[in-house]
Every structure is written in structure tokens, then in C-alpha cells.
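In keeping with the milestone schedule agreed at the kick-off meeting, the structural modelling team has produced records for the first pair of proteins. Each record is given below as a sequence line and a C-alpha cell line. The laboratory manager (R.T.) confirmed that both were archived under the project's standard naming scheme.
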Amino acid sequence: MSTVHTVFGPLAPWLVRRGPALPHEHLVLDLGRPQDRHAVLDAGPDTTAVTRELASLREEFGLSLVVELTCRGMGRDPAALARISRASGVPVVAATGWYHEAFHPPEVASGDVEELTGILVREIEDGIGPTGIRPGVVGEAGTSGERPTEPERRALLAAAAAARATGLSVVTHARLGRGGQAQLDLLTGAGLPPHRVCLGHQDLLDDTAAHRRLAAAGAYVAFDTVGKEHYRPDADRLRLLLALLDAGHADRILLSCDVSRRAYLQAAGGHGYGHLLRDFLPRARAAGVDEDLVDLMTRRNVLRFLTGSECDEER
């Protein structure tokens, strides 16, 4: 098994022996727009609250890793991620790539696939700007509908090419869970193996057949908006999760909360990063999900996805 690349360098997966990981979160971001000025986690005033939450989850549940998917054009701040990681004691993986078209920086409109691939590869190999912090995943590479727009298509193709060149995996943003099959077809058509693809926000799509098709194709299916009840009740998420487990696809499921604005923080009265661990998983256990399956979905699958391993072997 190869290493997981965190903001402080390589982390051997066998060191993450116990305790869950959160594979789709944001610790610092800025998606604020005139119609929604509150989609922000500020590197200044919010950092203390984020750090306290992660430290508390490390103490209570043994939180072992956070994959932070704020990428280019989303207010990414790798230096702030390093500060949060150091202060909380929780390893953090940084990301590169492009979100969906509404948040693309000008480089996407002006760049072809080769140019965009070069941008990502340079960050992965040399680090993000002057920080030298190297991303450990490509994502969240976004589309905004059933089919990618032309700029989204180029950004996804660049994500696939950069992942192939550097050995990383790709996490997608599928708005409201739609378009996952089109994303997978595009990425695998560009030569990226399906087990290096995680299709985001599938818990927002009430379509068990679609989930089964994606998992059967070998991709990871993310139920990563746990706790966002205004999008879909957690009761629906649990029903969809149990259906995918019953279909035999436990080894292709990732679970997370996608905290993406200040209002979701516990300090602001929100469900916080720990909702999956404190609330959702106990309901899953009550529905018959055993501890080995919980560990598979919340730890081993995350490590397998990030490293490209197809087995659960550990040192």
C-alpha cells in the first residue's frame, strides 16, 4: 500500500490503524456570491472553531484523517490547513482541481486540457504556491448538471490526466447527485481506473439502481452530505445506504458530512463535522450495520481510495 500525502508529507496507511476518516470536508473555503454570501469558512475567525471540533473528534472517536476538498477557485488556503492540522492533531489531505463552472477561475476558460493538466501536475509535484504543501487528492472536480459543460469537461479531463501522471485519485462534485455516470464515463474514458474515482453527493440522489451501477463499475459512491437535512433527510440517506449494502457494495462506500459554511459548525449551532459519528452511525448500527462494516466504510475504504489499493492489507 502506498502512502497518503498530507499537508505535512507522506503518511503510511498502516499508521491509521483505528479511528474513522472524513473523506469529503472543508475546513477553509469561500464560495460566497451575491445570492449566497454565507458559504464561507474563514481562515481567521472560523479556524478556532474548526480546530476545536476536529480535536474533540480525535479525542472522542479517534478521528484519524480529514480529506479537505477545497480546490482552485474555492478560497483554498493550504497554510491554514496546516495550522488546523497541527493544532488539532488530525492529519489533513489538501486538494487540487476545479469545482463546477460557476466557480472556475479564468485559467479554465482560457486553457486547453494539456495546459490545465500542467497546472495540476505542477501543484501535485512542487506544492501549492510558496507553501510547498502538496495535494494528496484531485477534487472536488465538479459538474453542475446531468452532463458536464464544455469547461467542466476540460477540467475533468485534466483531473484524470493529472491523476494518472501522479498516482492520485479523483473526487467529484455531482450537483444534487446528478451526472455521476457521465463523470465516471468521462474519467475512465480518459484512462483513469474506476477505483481511483469517488463520485460525490450520491446520497442526494434517490436512485438505488444508479448507486448500484456506479459501485458495480468499480467506482466509490460517496454518501457525503450526511446531516444536511434541508437537502435530504438522514432517514432517506440511511435507506439508500442500506440498499447499497444489501446489494453487496460495502467496499465502495464513503461517508462524510461536507461541512461547507459557517452555519454548519457546532459553534454556530450546526450539525458539525461529528454528525456522522455521533448521530448517523448509531442509527446505522441500530439498523443492523456491524462494526466491521462501519470500519470498512469510514476508514479502510478511505485509505484504499486514496492509495489506489484494491485490498485491505495493513502492516
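The second protein of the pair:
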Amino acid sequence: MPEGHSVHRIARQFDRNFVGRPLAASSPQGRFAEGAELISGRAATSVRAVGKQMFLEFDDDLWLRVHLGLYGAWDFAGEILVDPTIAAANGRMGQTNQRGTDLGAEPILDAAGENSLSSIGAPRRARGRVRMSEQTTGLQEELEWPPPVVGQVRLRLLTDVTCADLRGPTACVLQTPDEVAATIAKLGPDPLVDGTEAGEERFVAAVRRRATAIGLLLMDQSVVSGIGNVYRAELLFRARLNPHTPGRDVPEELVRGLWRDWARLLTIGVDIGQMMTMDDLDPDAYRRAMASRDDRHWVYHRAGLPCRVCGTEIVVEEAAGRNLYWCPSCQR
């Protein structure tokens, strides 16, 4: 499932390439035909991401809400104006790791496409080609315009030079301002929306009053927004916290530490386009981690492998229908 960093990156792409422009909208798949007809020809006026959901505002107080869910993704094609705050993810403006080591300008690409500027969401091979228009030498060949529809496209948004195709979302609906406000009110704090201090207090209060296991609370979007299976496992390991500990039994300072670590990892994820959860990597290790998920995480997807810290076998179990990875020694 795309986690919060991906949705913030998508929102930045929309802000850079679609906001302020009238859009032609269609639903090639047909499942959003009425909604597409309502927004087609309108100007996009703003965009925001909260957790795993994106809200695109149109004139006349009409909002498009998109929740990618497990399988959704946005595919971009055409001339993409690269947002400087996320351009480094494509390697075109240089890579910098968490310690500030300059890794040069060569791209470091993930085969799953997570850091691609042409497809953001559930990992898949990008269906479109992108002709980037600044800060890069990118793909320059002539493209068919508009690009042909491939697969089940729920919604296509077009400017004169840029195309965004939405596939496989859990939600793609139009909302009024009041409905948007009600949706957001049900979501937990997001460090990039609520700020770190105010968000921290909301998060601490929500966790400390519940008997639910912390491993479940971190996945509850009403408790905290944007955390999915990967970040959940990694945050708990980094805190050396047993995922079965009831929220109310987790020491307050440890809860605050979880929030602050989430704010840090989310910012890194938005900046580089990867769920990078290992610190203090030398340049070679960082390049390997950027290129492969297997070298990027402490415990996620490492069931049966030795813990990177203590050597104990990493276990995986089902928690609320999702796989939970953890080290039974480090996270006693």
C-alpha cells in the first residue's frame, strides 16, 4: 500500500503541474464518468495531502478526494515540471543521504518504481513516458499526445502538456468543503499537515488512553495518518518496542519518540521517494539501499533472516490482516 510519503509527493506533483490550470477530465474505465464530467473544464485551485489521502480543489468549492488504498497509483506523462523538493528522488539533482554525504548526480533507481517521477503509488512498472522539462536531461523523444489509455484508468486529468492517469484507487469521489472537513476530522495527525508539536500532543493522547497494542495503533489512521505496514514495522524496531505492548503501557517519552521518528522518516521519504529507515550508511551502502528494498530496512520483509543488530531470526505474524515483522530479542 502506498504510504504517506507517496501521497505527499503526488500532491507536490499536482501543485507543480496542475494547480492553476483548467483540466480536461474523463473516466476511460467508466466508473467515474459523472464525476469526471462535473470537473472537466474547471481550474484546479489547490491541492493537499493528509496521511494517505489527497484532496484536489476545483473552482466553485468542489473537491476531488482520492485514496489510493492497496493498489492505486497515479501515472504521469508529458512534460513534467520537476518540484525541486522531490527532484532528488530521480537522481537528477544529486543524491544526499541522511548524513549529508554528497553522492553525485547519477540516478539511483528502484526497480519497483517507488522513486519514479512517472508513476507514484502502488509499485508497478510505469505505463507512461515522461519528458521532464527542467533540471534534467530526461526523456526527450516526441510522445503521442494525448497518450493512449492503457488498462483500467478510473480518472484521466489533462492539461495541454501533462497527463495524470489514476488506476486502482480505493476511493475517487467528489466532495463539498464540509465533506472534506469531515473526512479530515476523522484522520489522526500528519506531521507535514498538523506540525510536529501540535501533532505530537494529539498522537500521545490517542495512544496513551488505549489498551490496543501499539502495533495496531500505528496502523489506525484515526490515531496517526500515513503510517502503513513498512513504516509501522520499522518505527517499532527503531524504538526497540514490542508491537504487542498496549498503547497505555508505552512510556510517554517512548510514545513521543515514535512521533518524532515518524516526522523524521516521513520527511526523508518525501524528499528521496523511498521508505529509507536505516541511518548512518556509508555512500556504497546508501546506493545499495536506494536501489533495493532488501538493503533499506531493519526488519520489514526479512522474516527468517537474522536481525541486523542481534542476529535473532526476524519473525512475521498476522496482525489485523497485515504482516507484522519484528525481532523478538531486540523488541522484548
